[in-house]
Amino acid sequence: MIKRGIKSKIKVKKQIFLIFGIFLMGILLLLNVSAVCCEKLKDDGYWCQPADSDDECDANYRIQDDAKTCKTVPYCHMTCVNENTGACGILSEGQCRSEGGIPYEEPMEEVPACQAGCCLAGQNAYFPFTANECKFFAGVHGINTDFREDITSYDACEELVAKVEVGACLISTETQKACKIKTNEECDESNLVNLAQEAEINVGILSGIELDFFPGELCTSPNVGSDCARTKNTICGEDGKVYYLDSCSNFANIYDESKYNDNNYWRYIYSPYDIEVCTVGPEGSAVCGNCNPVGNTVCRNEKDVSGLNAPSGDYVCGDLGCVYEGTHYHHLDSWCAGVGTALVGIEKNTSNLAISEKSREELKDQDTYNTPGSKYFKLTCAFGEVLLTQCSDYRNEICAEYAGEDENGVSYSSASCMRNSWPYCTSFTTKTQCENPKYLCKWVPGYRTNAEMPVVPEEDRREQQGSCVPLVPPGFDFWEGDTQGSLICAMGIVKEIALFETNIWRNRDNYDAWLTERNDGKFLHNRCFNGCYAIPGYGIEFDLDYENGEEKMYPEEIQCSEEGDGEIQGLQKCYNLPGCTDYQYLTEFYDESECQLFESGSMEQYHLSDRRGQYCHKDGKEDHWLTGEITGSSYSCTPGLGGAFPGGQTKEEKDEEKERDYPIYLTHNEWLDSITERARSMGDCGFKPNVDGDYSDENSEIITAIFQKMDQKGNVKRNVTAKQIIYKGDEKAQFKLEYIPDGEPIILPVEVEVHDCADNGGTCILIMGEETCETAEGSCPYGLTCCNVDAMMDEEDNEGGT
Amino acid sequence: MKRGKKAQLTIFIILAILIVAIVLFIFLFWPKLKPEYNETQTPYSFFEECIEDSIEEKIETISINGGDYEVNPGTALFYRGDYIKFLCYTRNYNELCHIQVLFLKNYFENQVSTTIHPEVEGCFDALIRTYEEQGYIVSVTEGGIETKILPENVQLTFNRKVTITKDGVTQEYEEFRIREESNLFGIIEIAENIVLWEEGVGEAFPEGYMAVDPYMKVELKTVGDVPNDDSHLYIITDRRTGEVFRFASRSLAAPPGYM
């Protein structure tokens, strides 16, 4: 329905255009790029680091030229084997040798010394271990080990250990019946010396010692018949549980006060997970020692735990929980905290670990959350202590959390510092890509970041007419001056050209009058025909209802026209339709040339332009445009709506020809909100308060305007005004910009741009469509071309121009 | 008369000050006033007593520095007045780190052996001097130092042979061995594993280690005193022994304003 673009030759009377822009202070930074990979740096001795030049490398080691990173340099990734311990890893060759290892070029999985298997060590098994690691482990722990290279998975290794029989190993002499809990392999003649030493039996009489193994039984079992007896003594196990001790200092079963007198409990070995064994809740217990460190309890001396007194022994299952700001957390629970305007309590979905829709909605408010200085923290309850981890600075990470219940119905919370994926955002060009839950980005309808196609076809506008910006604006070290943050903030700068016509009865230079007539300056609003939304006050009666959360909609999303009360003289009425807002009427009006906004009266009553499609093709000449005279809702260049059309065109076809692009924004406030949201979301950009509530410089976010006179060809004839600030930051205005009706001369602390077109005798002008100009030396603001105007004027005179 | 009383008072005050000073002197310096040697001490116990504090100090310093006794500031994170060694590092932003020390246990052991050397020499010199003062003829052979970090202790073996002779009686003492109770073995295993995570994914997850061993405290700090650094500082504390091991890593560091 909408035809994009306008043709190059436009006949207009007098035009004045304004250039509006939102400027954020910024200075570009030159980035250094590393060029070599040093196996070792000369000065600080780091291994395998990128460097700018060979000079930074230690000449005794290798240097790889043309490498921005060492990640792809083979000699930095050799397999290094420590033959003493059996450990394997990836290091550079020189580094490996310096650590006493042997380097191999082959990948680790192809180096025989690094082949992983299962290391059986007593009642435990370890995977993945190399053969040498297993051997080293045996030496270090003073136990026998068995390496099984045929076992190639953790589960298979676990299965092996499950088959290991554990039981009472009776070590008998004529006078003693000592006992130790061992595996059947450990309770073997070959291990007699160790067993005797452990049982404190004189090793001088080894010949008289007998060994008997009782699988699954404790040393206190009558069947074993050892000297060991049950006691009420307890001890902490390596697994954090409380165990009974027998009189021979052997670990017996889990401490359970109710089972002390249970003979079977002192006869057989019970697994802590056996149904017979008591369990402990997250609050802890003084009578059951089956603590669960993951479930908030661990073996602790009763002296260190208040409110729990063990009837037997010194140890209890103590509560490891913490109380933080009145909330009780369990051991290893974690939650989020923040400084300043960090949004505490960002919810994370357990299914896909993306943050919830509710939190995304909250985060969209870049003025309220994540302003400069705000930071995220993760707090973790560990052993009754709250540990603090700061998420990566500059909001490169945010903290998100989720709360759930474990299989026992015990509630828990888990937080994590999530990487802020903001750098991806500007690469997304569609709304769907942008709002992918995997990324922390948001879609701001309006300007696109792709300058090559600022306006997309109608069918794509909902998906593509907008910018993808960070949902959590990152922080920058803006106080440092020359930083990359300035570069990113500069992405928030936009420029807009508003074109309007005046007539000879108006004081065309009366910029001041125009500005002071913001609310009554309907003349300019009515006479505007391009970029009208950049003119203050434009469409003020039709603004989005921000207070009630109304969001921008596109015509195809609005259903009200179908329910309208019919057509009036061939025009469909947009207004007064059920369920629609003023903004929606306006949306329909701009979309449909045959849609009438008012039943009676003219547009001149409102701050709107009715020049929706004021230019049309000259009949039969698609490259020739005519200005139309407006009469009500018809234009002289499309005479006789409903009547005959030249060239056999249908009414719709004719309408299409007179339409301009559907405007990106419909009202000035919509434009203002969009560009400020877009700019402020880029990071610590624009006019924002920091964590202490102090605002940045009021000039850190400004909108400037310049009035220029154009001729009918669109060439700038002269500047009517100097560039002036018409909006700037205002601490009192709750994140809105302060409007300066009379304009303010630009005296900025930092020179944002320097353009030397005029210095070279050129003029910066807007080249529309396929127009060209003889270019002059020098630079211009974005969107304008430095042209040699004199040459153009000469050419125009020769052509007998307007 | 008045003058006499005044003089008496002055004497009392001086005496009181002297008594307090003597008491203080004894209280503060008594351990140092003890003789270095007593008759029941063997060269083993003499040496152990002499070197023990130094060993503890070396181990503690190396532990809190990340594996080096003296850290090169160029390879360290400056954190609250201390330099802490990077065990995994990359200069680049948004890149996984390269391991700087792979066999950390060996590295630590070598650091202890190397840095304790001057104190060991000092102790053997003291031993010679002390025994010679007692009329012994003393000889000490040269030998290396071997440090082993074992599951429940750190063991240092000094391969020296001390021979003392007095009144025609010669006694030989070989292999001076000292064990310090320690869980460094477990702590370093965690540190080595964290380094692998840093190298592999850019960050480790402290809760995992605390779930396996609740008595172990593993903290991750992301703030260095160096601005824009985005380095990771890990602090591993064994709540049972109070031992602390700290080290730094710089992996997948995100700069301000650019990724």
How many β strands of chain A by DSSP?
A: 44
Percent of residues in helices of chain A comes to 10-25%
Task: Provide a count of the helices of chain A.
Answer: 15
- Give the CA-based shape of chain A: elongated
Distance N to C terminus of chain A: 33 Å
Number of helices of chain B: 6
The profile of the biggest β sheet of chain A is:
8 strands, antiparallel
Outline type of chain B = extended
Number of strands of chain B: 10
The chain pair forming the largest interface, with residue counts per chain, is: A-B, 68 and 47 residues
Instruction: Tell me the span between the first and last alpha carbons of chain B.
Output: 92 Å
Taking all Cα atoms into account, the compactness measure Rg of chain A is 40 Å
Structural class of chain B: alpha+beta
Brief rundown of the structure:
Chain A is of the alpha+beta class and 802 residues long. Helices cover 14% and strands 27% of the residues of chain A.
Overview of this protein structure:
The complex is a heterodimer of chains A (802) and B (259). By secondary structure, chain A is an alpha+beta fold. In chain A, strand 2 and strand 3 (47-51) form a beta hairpin. The longest helix of chain A has 14 residues, at 668-681. Mean pLDDT of chain A is 79; it is low at 1-17, 23-34, 566-570, 629-635, 640-645 and 795-802. Chain B is an alpha+beta fold and 259 residues long. Chain B contains six helices and ten strands; from the N terminus they run H-H-E-E-E-H-H-E-E-E-E-H-H-E-E-E. In chain B, helix 2 (43-65) packs across helix 3 and helix 2 (43-65) packs antiparallel against helix 4 (117-133). Chains A and B meet through strand 3, strand 6, strand 24 and helix 9 of A and strand 3, helix 3, helix 5, helix 6 and strand 8 of B.
